Amino acid sequence: MTKRQMEWVALAFFAALVMLVFQQIATSMVEQGIASGGAYDNAASYPRAIAIFLGGLIGIQAILLFMKSRSLDAPVRTEGRGRAIALLLVFGGYLMGLNWLGYHLSTAPMALTVMLICGARPGLRLVLVALGMAFGLAFIFEKILSVVLPGGTFGLNIPW
Amino acid sequence: MFATLASGFEMFLTPLAVGLTFMGILIGMLVGALPGLGPLMGIVLLLPFAIGMPPLAGMGFLIAIFVGGSCGGSVSAILLRIPGTPLAAATLLDGYPMAKKGRAADAIGIALAASALGGIAGGVVLIMASPTLARFASSFGPPEYTMLAITGLFTISLISEGTLVKGLMACAFGLLLSTVGTDEFSTGFRFTFDNPNLMNGFHIVAVVVGLFAVSEMAFQVMGSDLLSSPTIQKVQPGLGSFVRVLRHWPNLLRSSGIGVFFGSLPGAGGDISSFSAYGVAKAFSGSHENYGTGEEGGVVATEAANNATVGGALVPTLALGIPGDASSAMLLGAMLILGFVPGPLMFVQEPGFVGGIFLVYMLSNVFLLVAGIIAAPLFIRVLSIPKAYLIPAILILCCIGTFALQASVFDLLVMFAFGLVGMLFRLTGYPLSPVVLGLILGPILESNLRRSLLISREGYWIFLDRPVASALVVLNVLILTGLLVSSLRRMKKARGGKRALNP
C-alpha cells in the first residue's frame, strides 16, 4: 500500500464519520424530537456544525492529496508490519476472550505470546517472566487497590 | 494567594499525599527515561489508579508524574543520545557530548537540578498568576468561555505536528467524540445506537489509552531493536550539581521564564520552550562558551525551560479550565472525574484543593532533585530492559487500568478500537493531541455555546457585544489567518524548491 492510498483510507474514515453524523441526525435524533428548535432543545445543531466543518476540511485535504507530489506514491513502511498485525490480533483476541476466560487464565499466555512475537527466545525463563508480569500486576491492583479483575466463566479470582 | 496556600496545607499534609507525590516522581522519571513513553503516557496509564485515591493524593501523584516525566527524558538523551521524550531532544545537544567527555554524572546531575529549579520558578508563577487570572476570569460568562475554548482548540491543532488541515481534522474528530452520550440540555441520546454502555459517552481514559498507548506499542513492535539491551556506563550524580547550576543563574532564570511563557500558551509544549531557551542561551553565551560541544549552560537552559513549562501549563488549566497541552488536558480530565471543575469558581469554592495543588507541585520539584539523585542508577538500569519485556507489561497495565475504571469489558473494546484509530492517525501523520483536547474541551465548548445563544437576544452577535469575547474572536481570526498564510507560503516554497531541483 502506498502512502497516498493510506491517506485516502484516513479520508474515507473521516467521511464515514460525517455521514454517520448526518444519518443519526436524520433518524434517531429526529425520532426523539431533538433535531430542531432553539439552543436548548436542538441537540443536533452542534454535531451538525462540526460535521459540516469536518466535511469542508475533508474536501481541502482531498484537493491537497491530488496536488501533492509523487513522493506520496512510495510504499508505506513494511518492516515489522507482520509483528504489529500479530500483536494486534493477539491483543484483540485476548480482550474478546477476557469475559470468558478471565484475567488469570488468559493474561500470562497473552504476555508470553507478545514476547515471542517480539523475538524473545522460548524457554522457562520467558514463562516465568510472563507469569510474574501477569500476577505481579494483578496483586498490585487486586490486593492493594481492591480492583476485582474479570473472573471469566470459571469465576477465578485469587484471594490474596 | 497566601490564604489559598495555607488552606491547602491541611489537605496536603497527609502521609498518603506526600508518599504518592514521591512515588509519582519516581514513576514519572521512569516513563520519561524510556524512549517512546513520556509524561503523557505515564499520566494516561496511571490515571485509573489515581482516581481511586483521595482527590489531592491522586492529583499529586499525576502532577508528580508530569513533573518527573518532563525531566526523565534527559537521562536517555545524555547517556544514549536518544531523547526519552521530545521534551529532552534539545538536552542531547550538549548533554551527550558531556557524557562522551566522561562527564555523564555531571550532565545528569545538572539536568536534575536545573529541572527542579526551573520547575520551582514555574511554581512561583503558577501560585502568583493563577489566582489573579481566576479573579479576572470570574466575570467571564458563557460567550467568553466559548471563545476561550475555541482559542485552545485552534492553537493546539495548529501547533501540533502534521499539517494545519490534519490538526483541525483531528480536533473536529475529538469534538464529535465528545457529543456521544446523553445531551445535558435536552436529555436526548446522541450516537448511542441503543447501547446502554454509550449513555454517558466514551470514557476518556479508554479513548486516550487506546489512541496513545496501544497504538504506540503496535508501533514499537515494528522496530528492530526489541531484544537489544544497550550497555550503559554506571553514573551516580551528586548534590554538587546544584551548585554548578546556580553558577548559571542568569541562564536559569531566563530559560525558566521562557518555559513558563510557552507553557501558558495553549498548544506550545515543552519541546518548543526547550529549543527556544537553548537558542536564547546560545545567543547570550560568552565567547568562551561553545554550545553543542558539551556546555553545562546548554543542559541548564533546556531542562530549566521544559520543567518550567509544566508550571506555566497549569496556569490556564487551573484558572480557566482551558488546558495548554495534552498532558494538562489529562490532568483536567482527572480533576473532573474527581469532582472538581477547574476555573475561577474552583478558587472560590475549593481553596483548600487549589492550595493543595500548588503545594503538591512545589514538593514534586523538590522531590525531583532528591529522588533523581538517589534513584538515578535505577533509571539507568531500566534503560537496559529490552522492549520485548516492556511491551506486554504496558499492554497488561493498559487493560487493568482501563477495566478498573468501571469494571467494564466494553471499555476495553473501546480502548482497542481507538488503538486501531491511533495506528491509522500515526501512519498518515494526523496528530493525536488535538483529539484529546477536542474530547475534553468539547463539552465545555458546546454547553457554553448553547448557553450563550440561550441568553442572547441577537443570536451569534452576543460574541461581538461583549468586550472580552469580541477580543477573543479577533484573536482567533488572527491566529487562523496568520497560520493559513504561513502554511500557504510554506507550500509555495516547497513547490519552488522542488521545481529548482527538477527544472
UniProtKB/TrEMBL annotation, chain A:
Stretches assigned to the DUF1468 domain: 10-150
Keywords: Membrane, Transmembrane, Transmembrane helix
Transferase recorded as keyword: no
Ranges that cross the membrane: 49-66, 86-103, 123-141
InterPro entries in the record: DUF1468
Record keyword Nucleotidyltransferase present: no
Any coiled-coil regions, as ranges: none
Pfam families xref list: TctB (PF07331)
Protein name (record): Tripartite tricarboxylate transporter TctB family protein
Source organism of the structure: Paracoccus onchidii
UniProtKB/TrEMBL annotation, chain B:
Name this protein carries in UniProt: Tripartite tricarboxylate transporter permease
Span of domain DUF112: 20-437
UniProt KW keywords: Membrane, Transmembrane, Transmembrane helix
Spans traversing the lipid bilayer: 12-34, 40-66, 108-133, 145-178, 198-219, 329-347, 353-380, 392-425, 468-488
Entry-linked PANTHER family: TRICARBOXYLIC TRANSPORT PROTEIN (PTHR35342)
